Q: What sequence folds into this?
């Protein structure tokens, strides 16, 4: 039987509220975007909406995730332009590896409860 007055416990962290689970969801959406595409934009919006609403170490992850998206997009556009010179194929592959590595690092640090040391870095 179900109790009609049952209220789920509040105060827990959800997937869409600012916090560790949300940051992890952003990174996972970014990784899925390598196959699906649109999920990266959903992750970017989630990061922008929740940045500044949580603890300082989580905000470093939001900054890192936002910069990962925009820098990755820039690298991908430059690589696409250089496809004419046949260098773009190597660069687009390197961009994909860079993107995956940044997301995996972010996921590992978020799971461990650690901040990103240099969230504004252009490298790893």
A:
């Amino acid at each position: 039987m179900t109790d009609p007055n049952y209220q789920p416990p509040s105060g827990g962290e959800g997937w869409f509220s600012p916090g560790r689970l949300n940051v992890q969801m952003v990174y996972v959406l970014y990784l899925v975007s390598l196959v699906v595409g649109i999920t990266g934009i959903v992750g970017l919006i989630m990061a922008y909406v929740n940045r500044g609403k949580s603890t300082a170490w989580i905000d470093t992850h939001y900054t890192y995730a936002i910069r990962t998206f925009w820098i990755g997009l820039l690298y991908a556009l430059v690589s696409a332009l250089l496809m004419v010179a046949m260098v773009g194929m190597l660069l687009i592959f390197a961009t994909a590896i860079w993107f995956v590595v940044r997301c995996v690092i972010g996921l590992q640090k978020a799971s461990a409860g650690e901040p990103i040391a240099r969230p504004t870095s252009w490298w790893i």
User: Anything to note?
Assistant: Confidence is low (pLDDT under 50) at residues 6-12. The first helix runs from residue 20 to 32. The CA atoms of residues 24 and 96 lie 19 Å apart.
